[in-house]
Amino acid sequence: TAASGRGMRAVGVLGLGALLAWLPPAHTDTFSALRSVRQARGNEGRLLRRLRAYLREESARLRRLSRFYEKVRALHQDPSASVDNPLLAFSLIKRLSSDWPSVVYSSEATENSRALHVGFQELQRELPGAEDLDGAARALMRLQDVYALSVKGMANGLFQPTSTDRPPLYSPGRRVSLSADDCFHVGKVAYDTGDFYHSIAWLEEAVSRFRLSYGSWNPEEERGSLEDALDYLAFSYFMAGNISHALTLSREFLHYGTWGSDVVPGSWGEVLECLYHLYMGLGQWGAEVGCPHSAWLKDTADPVVRALELRMAAITGLDLRPPYAEYLQVVNYGLGGHYEPHFDHATSRKSPLYRMKSGNRIATVMIYLSAVEAGGSTAFIYANFSVPVVKNAALFWWNLRRNGDGDGDTLHAGCPVLAGDKWVANKWIHEYGQEFRRPCSRDPRD
Ligand SMILES: *[C@@H]1O[C@H](CO)[C@@H](O)[C@H](O)[C@H]1NC(C)=O
Ligand SMILES: *[C@@H]1O[C@H](CO)[C@@H](O)[C@H](O)[C@H]1NC(C)=O
To answer: How far does the signal peptide extend, from start to end residue (predicted)?
Structure first.
């Protein structure tokens, strides 16, 4: 199950690639892998170096301009520099006819900024786009829900569950808080998908942060503003059915907005009409949802894979040779990466899994290849337990009963990774080939 899914980006499909197309769609929603986040960080490092070069060039240019300015100003302030002196007259005329134009029309500034543009464009293809930003926003909201985190806490850099006095789930080495515009963006992503529950929480936080800095200009936040956040927040309340609060907020909005405080409409009807026109103008932009990255590894891919397969065969006592088992699947879950509850086995005879012609997935071996700082447990929903991520630990379970029926208790989910990089290897073992290793039984309880 785990590997398929809409829009899955396989980092490298070795062997059995075709199986990817067979697998039933899994309901996944994950921010891109942590590896991509590290790459993004590397790319930002490159941008920083380009910006530093630009600043160096521009400072040198401005220093040259200052020197010219100082030189000319000194001549103008010197009473003894009379225009009667033919040499001074010559240099004045030369300056005006030649030096000034070259100072004013210098293309140096353009060249410097062009170099900066080119440097950025070279990297642009590798930089995250709007889709990735939306995915990251959704990952934050998922963490908020799954671990019952308060939005205010998260915006302040804390991972503290709201309703308990338990210690924080994760304490980052360096506490990073979110800006008003960051919160505004998360709220907007929720808003755009009609998720007013989340948009209210995040826009509330954005509004309270914008209110604190209202009037003080912050270049990093010029995109979002208190007005915009109030606008979206009021409409979120409106859609959530809290009309009176929507009106209170839209009054505040009108107060700050371009109308000015002296033309606040007096009646609710006017405000509603006003709201209607404002919100008809707000666009909807959905985005593709990211998924965990995965790859299929044939045992010939590397001696390590072969050794791992032999060890799994020895431990389980099952026949893992193709086609009795699928190739080893390696999955990387990034920040907030998770899997919705699912069964590993096929629940319909029409499932593409049967195209391997070796029956259903009788058992699963799941190996945690990495540790994470927080989150990421595998939760067995009906069986009511979860297994935390412990590096090099392996989970084994039978998906099918001895009579071949699926075992409902194996419904499981990958909880969102709160902090860290979760790597998992999955081995799905099929029914065929195991007839003498796990004999059948007609008893449905077996
Ligand atoms: C509307 O929202 C405000 C602010 O969150 C809250 O105090 C109020 O109780 C809500 N009213 C209704 C009817 O839900
Ligand atoms: C699930 O397990 C927890 C703790 O192990 C227990 O408190 C809870 O009652 C259990 N829930 C069900 C539905 O069995």
So the answer is: 1-28
